[in-house]
Write a structure and sequence with these properties.
CATH class: Alpha Beta
Structural class: alpha/beta
CATH superfamily: Phosphatidylinositol (PI) phosphodiesterase
Largest sheet: 8 strands, parallel, barrel
Shape: globular
Strand order of the largest sheet: 1-2-6-7-8-9-10-11
Helix content: 25-40%
Number of helices: 7
Distance between the termini: 16 Å
Number of domains: 1
Oligomer: single chain
């Protein structure tokens, strides 16, 4: 069955990456996609940007981050999986300059994720090095055409690996990845979403889940 992924929930209606946004999206979408970062005091938060108020997330504690939000920190503090009421694509935001914290981030999300979830990252090394540890599904993000050859080679060696593919790369004439393991992002035009789903991809990530 082809899946609709709510991109950070329903970002046109609610604050993105908040539990409210994600859970409202899950009332109408099959999956949600959300970004995960780790704080200096080793807490997981759902947050896309690498900085807040010009300070790196990994250098701030949970209480310090609270000062810069215009909503309650409890809406993004991922303390337990039960905060989200459905299947999730957790996109790990890995800071390679913070190796110890990055290892803790991966360990915590592995322990937290459900088997039906997907753990993905732009940092391929993080995903590929932890394949034996994942209890959930896992995938790599692709946003450059020159990544297609290597990802095709990896796909031949790992039948479980999923591919989260930027829309423009999906349309490339060099695209040869197994479509049933591909999730295309981010598509915000209804007819285009339907056309891509009809190409037998696993799913499509969109900001407009409420309009489908």
């Amino acid at each position: 069955m082809k899946k609709i992924f709510g991109h950070r929930g329903l970002p046109n209606i609610y604050n993105e990456n908040t539990f409210k946004s994600l859970n409202k999206a899950l009332e109408i979408c099959d999956f949600v996609e959300t970004d995960v970062r780790i704080t200096n005091d080793e807490e997981l938060i759902l947050f896309h940007d690498s900085t807040i108020n010009k300070k790196k997330i990994e250098e701030l504690s949970l209480s310090e981050i609270t000062k810069y939000l215009d909503y309650d920190i409890s809406q993004i503090h991922l303390a337990k999986r039960e905060n989200i009421n459905g299947d999730v694509n957790f996109e790990l935001k890995v800071n390679t300059e913070q190796k110890d914290l990055s290892k803790i981030l991966v360990k915590k999300i592995i322990e937290l994720a459900n088997p039906s979830d997907i753990i993905s990252s732009f940092n391929w090394e993080t995903i590929l090095n932890n394949r034996k540890n994942f209890q959930s599904r896992y995938g790599i993000l692709i946003d450059k055409e020159n990544q297609l050859f290597e990802s095709k080679a990896i796909s031949n060696l790992d039948a479980k690996l999923m591919f989260m593919v930027k829309k423009e790369i999906f349309y490339s004439r060099n695209f040869e990845l197994p479509k049933d393991r591909c999730v295309v992002w981010t598509v915000n035009e209804r007819n285009e979403i339907m056309n891509i789903l009809n190409m037998n991809v696993y799913g499509v990530v969109t900001d407009i889940g409420d309009k489908l």
